[in-house]
Structure formats: C-alpha cells, structure tokens
Amino acid sequence: MKDLVASAERRPLPGETLHGTGFAEFLGGKGVNQAIAAARMGARTAIVGTIGADRYGDEFLDLLAADGVDTTWVRRHPSLGTGVGLPLVLPDGGNSIIIVARANAAITPAEVTAAADALTGGQVLSVQLELPVEASRAALQLASAAGVTTILTPAPAGPVDPSLAAYVDILVPNEVEAAALTGLDCDDESQVPMIARKLAEDWDLHGCVVTLGSRGAYVLDRRGDYEERVPAHEVATIDTVGAGDAFCGSLAASLADGAELIDAVRLANAAGALSTAVNGAAASAPSRAAALALLDG
Ligand code: ADP
C-alpha cells in the first residue's frame, strides 16, 4: 500500500477544495513491513504478493531489495495499480482514510499456489489479513502441510474466518485485535492471561503472543507449557506506527533461527521497542545487532 498523506486544519466540506498544510508519502502494508523487519534480523526472507506494473510498484521492489528481501514471488498485475491509501490527518492527530486496494485485492489462491516454493521452502511463514482471506488461507494451508511454522497477525482487527485456525501455529494479536477476537478487554491486566488461554484453546494453537504496546507482551507456549509476561523496554518513543510489524517480523526471524518461543518474544519485544524510537513503519525496524544490544543492556 502506497500512502499519500495530506495534513489539513479540518476536513473539506462537500464540494469544497481546501488547501492542506502538509504532505508526505510512505510505503507500507503489514506484509512489506514484516518482511523488512525479518530481513533486518538476519533472516533470509521472501515476500509473496501482488503490486501494480506502475511506479509505486517499482518503489516497493526498490525498498524490499534495499534490505535484501527476495521479490521473486511478487506478481505485477497487468491492469490493476498498486494499492493506495489516502489519509487526511488533522491537527489533533485524528484522521480520515480512503483505501483503494487495487492489486492487493486481486491476489487469488491460484497465484498463491504458484508461489508454493517460497511458502513451503522456509522455516516460518508469517501471514496478515490485508489480502483476500482465500489467499491467506491458501498460503497458510500450503505451509502448514509442509511442516513450516505458521504465524498469523489477525489484522485489521475484526472477526476472523474460523477456517484459518486449522493452519495457524502461533497467533500474534495486538490489544485491539485480541479484544475483537475474544470480547475481553486487554486494558484490564488481569484479563490478559485469560485472553491468551482462550485464543490458544479456541484456535488450537502451539502459542499465542498478545502484544500490549508500551506494556510489552504476554506469551503462552502450549508446547513448552509456560506463560510469561514480558515487560516493555523503556525507550524514547516518538512514533509507534509499525511497532507490531517490527515485533512480528523479528519473531518470525528468530523462530526461523531455531529459537524457543519465549526467546523469540524477548528479541521481538526489543525490536518493537526500538522501532518506536524512529519515525515511519517499514523504515523503523531495527537491526539484529541493535535489538541484541538492547536485550543485553
Ligand atoms: P501494534 O503496532 O500492532 O498496535 P503494539 O502497539 O502492541 O502493536 O506494539 C508491538 C510491540 O512493540 C509491543 O508488544 C512492544 O514489544 C513494542 N512496543 C510498542 N510500543 C512500545 C513503547 N511505547 N515502548 C516500548 N515498546 C513498545
């Protein structure tokens, strides 16, 4: 998704043309952000998806190549352009956003199957729900059948197709997503273990990791038979956008490297914290060395 962000004093009225106060462009999307985060943690990383045969698509390929993400399985749609987001940001931080998914919405299960080499050839597959659910399911199903560890970020928040559960090993919701899936409230610290347990049982998971923003994360590992609250690192936070993606990409990289879930969560917790000390989403994921330094410090 290419974001074209306009700032203005207020929303335009119907029929009105309004002068804005600022403009910025960002390349984003959870898949891209997580792939870059995983690559920066040192994992050999490939991404599967569809972009347009346009200049925004070219920008994505350049961005991914700069971090060594393999784009062999990124398809360029013959007629639909790269997905775009048009956020309007107001002085109080409020926003209104128009999203036009274009090529993002066009990926089919058959195209996912064509990327089987990428989906079954690695140690870990990380999936988000910004594609049509049939495509996400096809990817999870292929990887799961091949014995690849599968991680699902259930974002954007909302009800999730229950047929995905059979193919997910580790679920990583943030507070809003966890609340949407369980009806329970993460703000109430005493509920967090119940949320993780409920999701682990309902989804028959190997592990559930609830990310809790500035409060860190909660991990439940059913295989290792433990639960642990991992407190956040204190950093000079300036922009929390993309923290969850830095967390999930790092978690995937660490698991691919053979780490236990709790150790992967500790590294991801450091990576998520560091990403909040830098502006941007994809651009804010830290290096492995920086995350390890924070962990050891
Ligand atoms: P999302 O970006 O999906 O909303 P979170 O806000 O839960 O996800 O953040 C993901 C992870 O990033 C957290 O679990 C934590 O490890 C780290 N993190 C987020 N915000 C902060 C913060 N203010 N200080 C330290 N770590 C943070």
From TrEMBL:
Stated family: Belongs to the carbohydrate kinase PfkB family. Ribokinase subfamily.
Signal peptide: none
Cofactor note: Requires a divalent cation, most likely magnesium in vivo, as an electrophilic catalyst to aid phosphoryl group transfer. It is the chelate of the metal and the nucleotide that is the actual substrate.
Enzyme class name: transferase
Official protein name in the record: Ribokinase
Compartments in which it is found: Cytoplasm
Keyword terms, alphabetized: ATP-binding, Carbohydrate metabolism, Cytoplasm, Kinase, Magnesium, Metal-binding, Nucleotide-binding, Potassium, Transferase
Taxonomic source organism: Kribbella sandramycini
Cofactor(s) the protein needs: Mg(2+)
Main subcellular location of this protein, as a coarse class: cytoplasm
